[in-house]
Design brief:
Elements: E1 8-13, H1 17-34, E2 42-46, H2 52-60, E3 69-74, H3 83-93, E4 101-106, H4 116-122, E5 128-129, H5 135-148, E6 152-153, H6 155-163, H7 169-183, E7 190-191, H8 193-216, H9 220-232, H10 237-260, H11 266-273, H12 277-286, H13 292-310, H14 316-327
Parallel strand pairs: 1-4, 1-5, 2-3, 3-4, 6-7
Helix pairs in contact: 5-6, 6-8, 8-9, 8-10, 8-12, 9-14, 10-13, 11-12, 13-14
Length: about 325
């Protein structure tokens, strides 16, 4: 891709930052392998923190004992020094960048009309926009990632992973890696629906743990903010409520187990209660903030909220906010 004869400008951008970052890593690796084994002709700048003159100097510098020089600029759109944009656009328009220069711009979501520079970069031959993958493409991408880890996956398990409301490919990769680590100790290397459900339950719990941490510390504003974040991300209030109820039930079970079995380990509790050890360990960090009586009182209130919502006498969102305020008093 790194041809001779002209300046190469490439912008990698779009909402799917996982794939754009992977592409950036791939391009840097290819450049180093083919053009710069010594690593002396590569500069990477986070443009919102670096001096503009230093960046421009790297772009126009001659390569050292090589044919090309690569400069990577990350998040140039976030730079508060807008004169950098103007200077760079001027260099591009007047073809003042050397033919030996390769410049890759990495951005996440960016408004191309925010400045002519970014519209110009987006039109370059090798620039790429990484959109969020739709269902069929996402399914194939997940399958490819699983195959690359020397694993297989059953169709129902693949469907469950594809349709789970992850907020990014970063989260999906995180869950795939957890399942892969789990299966590394198992003789069978095929992901089943049971494996997926085990770790997706944990992923759902993870968001709720942040919420529970705020409640434990009696940080009402933070707890309300985390609650609203879930609503803003499009999660249904009823689903969020059910996750909280499920987690509260685990809090009660684990609290009760350790009160009856003092000195027990988290592994023994996980085995006795049929709860993932990861969840038990996280819960143990939260439990000191609640007495057993307080846990039962809040659980009864959660059941009352559920009853009122289902009979049309209340709604989950408003009731949860009131409960947060009461807990954090």
């Amino acid at each position: 891709m790194f041809y001779n004869g002209h300046t190469m400008l490439i912008m990698l951008h779009g909402p799917d930052t996982y794939r754009s970052r992977q592409q950036l890593k791939k391009m840097i690796s290819e450049f180093k392998a083919k053009r710069d084994p010594s690593g002396l002709n590569l500069n990477i700048f986070n443009a919102d923190k670096i001096d503009g003159a230093e960046m421009l100097e790297a772009m126009v510098a001659s390569p050292f004992l090589a044919e090309k020089r690569l400069t990577v600029l990350e998040r140039l759109s976030e730079s508060k020094k807008k004169d950098i944009w103007e200077n760079l656009l001027e260099l591009i328009k007047n073809k003042k960048l050397p033919d030996t220069s390769v410049i890759i711009f990495w951005e996440d979501e960016i408004k191309l009309n925010s400045h002519p520079l970014f519209a110009t970069l987006a039109k370059q031959k090798f620039s790429q926009k990484f959109e969020t993958l739709p269902g069929a493409q996402l399914s194939q991408w997940i399958k490819t990632e699983i195959t690359s880890r020397s694993l297989e996956i059953e169709p129902y398990a693949l469907s469950a992973l594809t349709n789970y409301p992850f907020d990014s490919l970063w989260r999906i990769i995180n869950e795939i890696d957890k399942i892969a680590a789990y299966l590394s100790k198992e003789p069978e290397k095929k992901i089943t629906l049971k494996h997926v459900n085990l770790f997706l339950d944990e992923a759902g719990d993870d968001n709720i743990f942040h919420f529970l941490d705020a409640l434990t510390g009696r940080h009402a504003k933070e707890a309300i903010k985390l609650l609203h974040n879930q609503f803003d991300n499009g999660e249904e209030s009823g689903k969020i409520f059910n996750l909280i109820v499920g987690q509260w039930r685990k809090l009660l079970l684990i609290k009760d187990y350790f009160s009856l079995n003092p000195g027990s380990t988290s592994d023994s509790a996980a085995k006795a209660l049929d709860i993932h050890p990861f969840v038990v360990k996280k819960t143990l960090a939260i439990l000191p903030g609640f007495s057993f009586a307080k846990l039962k009182e809040i659980y009864r209130e959660l059941l009352d909220i559920d009853l009122r919502a289902k009979t049309g006498e209340g709604d989950y969102a408003a009731s949860l906010e009131m409960l947060v305020a009461k807990i954090c008093q």
